Amino acid sequence: MKKDNVNNFRTFWFKYSDYEMVEIDERYYITPKENAKISMYDPFKIADEILVDILMIGRYIEKNDIASSNEKIMQFVKNYGLLGELTYLPINSDIVNQNKVYLPKGNLVSNEEIMSTYDYIELFLKCKKKQKIVMKKNARGEILELSTENEVNPLFAIDRPTEYAVIFSKAYSECLVWIMHYARTLYQTFEAIENYSKLEDAYTKQIYDIRIKNFNPSKIACRVLMGNKKDDVPVLEWNFNSLKLAIDTMFALNETTDRKTVKMCKHCSKPFSSLNLKAEYCSPQCRNQANVYKSRAKNK
To answer: How many CB atoms are closer than 10 A to CB 225?
Structure first.
């Protein structure tokens, strides 16, 4: 997707080496294992892999193959980390300093549209960990202190608001249903865009129109950084508030370029990645099977 911009894109996210799924109050949450190690990476360097994997999860869910989707979600999180829903969802930013969180109507995380930041962050701390999150508040519910203990804090290496210390802690968790809903919605949008021009049925086209229009990523920010050396080129650093927003951006860039590298297989409808811009099938098997069907259709 970004092969023409190899040297001038940059962003980062953190992931742990291993995660586990925990059942709490009849819901499943994913959280880092207590002995897991944290590391930083650039999602844009593996954008196609991330897109294909999250779209495949959505396809499994769309086909009601929940067992496969759960397995793929755990592998996805281990490869790329959790989505960062805590900072993705709020309409406002720098929520600790504002002490209020404004949420979009109909979100899956809370039935409330306005919450105290303290109560909102607590929704993501369902899994008890050795790593301790310290949140001190006054009588009005305003957060006076937010910090993590027993672990190196990645905020020392990055310029982000305090709430990111929670996202990158071992105490942080995200509900399985939230990830499933996002993957399915993204796949439905992908399916709508990929098949839109082929449609003749007005009803299905109307459904696809709605899906495409509902894809509306917000709060995308970036800045230009200059290198210290004479020959360094300017770098466009994406300031994403979450891995989820980074994926939204990867998806939007992929679907609106003439050099699309993540596509839908014309035979089996699976998402796949290929540097061959003319590739239409995810595998030689699918290409051969499609040719057999075409040959049979001609001979009828």
So the answer is: 12
Q: Are 162 and 181 in contact (CB under 8 A)?
A: no
Q: Which residues contact 233 (CB under 8 A, 6 or more apart)?
A: 7, 8, 227
Q: pLDDT tens digits for 125-138?
A: 988 776 777 777 77
Q: Is 88 left (phi over 0), alpha (psi -120 to 50) or beta?
A: alpha
Question: Which residue range is the domain that position 279 belongs to?
Answer: 265-300
**Pairing relation of β-strands 235-238 and 9-10?**
parallel
The pTM for the full model equals 0.86
Same domain, 141 and 285: no
Q: Tell me the C-alpha distance between 180 and 64, whole Å.
A: 11
Strand partners, 271: 264
- Looking at the 3D structure of the chain, how many domains does it have? 2
Report how far apart, in Å, the C-alpha atoms of 158 and of each of 89, 153, 164, 217, 226 are: 21, 10, 10, 23, 17
